[in-house]
Amino acid sequence: MTNLVIYGDKFENGFEDHSWVTHNATNRSPIHSGVYSINVSSATNWQGLYFYHTNFNSAPYESITFWANGEKGGQQIQVQGLLDGKTPADETYSRVDLTTNWQEVTVSLDELDVVGKTNFNGFWIQETPDGPDSPFDIDDVQLNLKTPPPVVAPPAKTPAKSDVSPMGTNPNERIVFWIIGALGVIICLLSCLVMLFWRRGMSDTRAARATPVLAVPNENTAMASPEDWKQRALTAEAMAGKQGQILREKMMPELTEFAKQSLVQGLYAQRNVLLETQQQAQQALVEMEARLAKLHLPWQERVRAYEKRVAELEEEVRTQGEEVRELTRATLALVRKKLEDERELGRISTRFN
Predict the structure, then answer these.
(1) Residue 91: which CATH number?
(2) Residue 348 half-sphere exposure, CB side, CA atoms within 13 Å?
């Protein structure tokens, strides 16, 4: 939404020339910009320019800006806002001393006591008797929009059952499931590795039991007895078990650290996804607010527009693919909040008008 132009090279956006002073609205020199300016050749007895518009709501605007040129300088002009064709009070005006060069003049609607009024219908620019009666020029007149407040994300809420997607289809849930799956694979690999070494130790033990070893007899030794072979097999089995235990003690801390790092990276990725989704939803709401403000709709029409958008987003949540459904939910939450704000603004406006 842009500022509302009142006079550029002509009266625009529903404003009309209801002035009661000698003037030329197609003056070619001097001009501030464009092709024409408004020249007032003489203004006596509080004569002035009247920028008239049928009654409308001034709520979106905060000030009037125009450029003025005193030509010879020294004049004093006075700006007064109008409600239903009348000034709110005699003392609600703003006065400016003109110079010989173009100068920008900004007058707040609050100073003129016409801010947030539904029966605002224009303003006057008059020359006061406190300065010389000499020509002056006006150009590039406009109403300035209020500075919009920063968009604040609504607090997170627990989704209703109808808003919860099937397990595993939500992008954030898929990240968690991926982490759990990775941990499961790590545990399976560790178990297989331990089992492999255990079976290898058992094979060596059985081989030691089954293979006879012939001792070379001499006068000091005799053939080993069966008890000796049994003892050797038990010793080999104990050594294999000890080797497996050492392997587990060395590998387990490294695998645990790997699993921890995988979990942290997954949670970080999930946080980035949520932040990006929230930012995209806020941008979508800002663009919608800008389009509605550009149309200058009354609050009832804005409420209907937000209600329509809420219905559209609810339908999209039901029909869209999961890759964009999370963004749609975030946008829907922001639009619902904005709808409630507009309804409250309407109730307040109705109460005071």
Answers:
(1) 2.60.120.430
(2) 9
Q: Which of 24, 28, 26 is nearest to 43 (CA)?
A: 24
List pLDDT tens digits, range 74-104: 999 999 999 999 999 888 999 999 999 999 9
- Local confidence band at 20 (pLDDT 50, 70, 90 cut-offs): very high
Enclosing domain of residue 95: 4-145
203 forms beta bridges with none
Residues 112 and 29 in one domain: yes
Joined together, the tokens standing for residue 48 give 């002035």
Kindly state whether residues 112 and 23 are assigned to the same domain: yes
Tokens 């609205």, residue located = 25
Work out how many domains the chain is built from and give that number.
2
Helix residue ranges per DSSP H, the chain = 171-210, 226-294, 299-319, 322-352
336 and 233 assigned to the same domain:
yes
Q: What whole-number distance in Å separates Cα of residue 96 and Cα of residue 108?
A: 13
pLDDT for residue 215? 43
* Cα separation, 136 vs 38, whole angstroms: 9
343 in the same domain as 310: yes
In this structure, the answer to whether residues 31 and 135 fall within a common structural domain is yes
Query: 10 Å Cβ neighbour count for 21?
Result: 19
What value does the mean pLDDT of the chain take? 79
